[in-house]
Amino acid sequence: ALVQCIRDVRQALSDHDQRIVKTVPRRGYLFCADLSSDDAVAATPLHPAQTIDYCRTRDGVRIAMATVGQGLPLIRPPTWFNHLEYDWHVQFRSALYHFLAERCELVRYDGRGNGLSERHVPEISFETFGLDLQAVVDALGLQRYALLGISQGAPIAIAHAVQHPDRVRKLVLNGGMALGSNKRGSTRDH
Q1: Where are the beta strands (DSSP E) in 32-130?
Q2: Percent of the chain, pLDDT > 90?
Q3: Which of 134, 130, 153, 131 has its CA nearest to residue 145?
Q4: Cα gap 58→96, rounded to integer Å
């Protein structure tokens, strides 16, 4: 099915010589089109003026974080895959982010190994996800804030709220996992 999809894309782009969508042996496919200045304008992110900055976790990982809007800081821990710039192009995320940025200071960050954060990291675990969140809060100097935990971000937000009940003003959870790996029968990470 994937090969047929790539064939259809190449046909739609008249890319018979595979100059736009190249096949990379044992890796996959690579989009190689040059952007003209007109294309660059069209590709400009459709998001409010967010500020992107970086911080370091206790274990030395560089984390990218973005802030947009004004008001009570609302921190959204990342889900499985994120990208501070490209998430604004994902229909359901963009709509939520626009809504939130109009009502509060929305703070998002790319978790270790994702987006603009450091890609090659020594460890990815529940504990290190907590280090990422703590680094963001500390770097921004936040004393009181709300957390929005969605999907994988929900247990991270819960753990942080338990550790810092004096700092977490509100906790909003959506689509979190009831028991995580234990529910799926994994004995790892008990």
Answers
A1: 51-56, 62-68, 73-76, 105-110
A2: 54
A3: 134
A4: 31
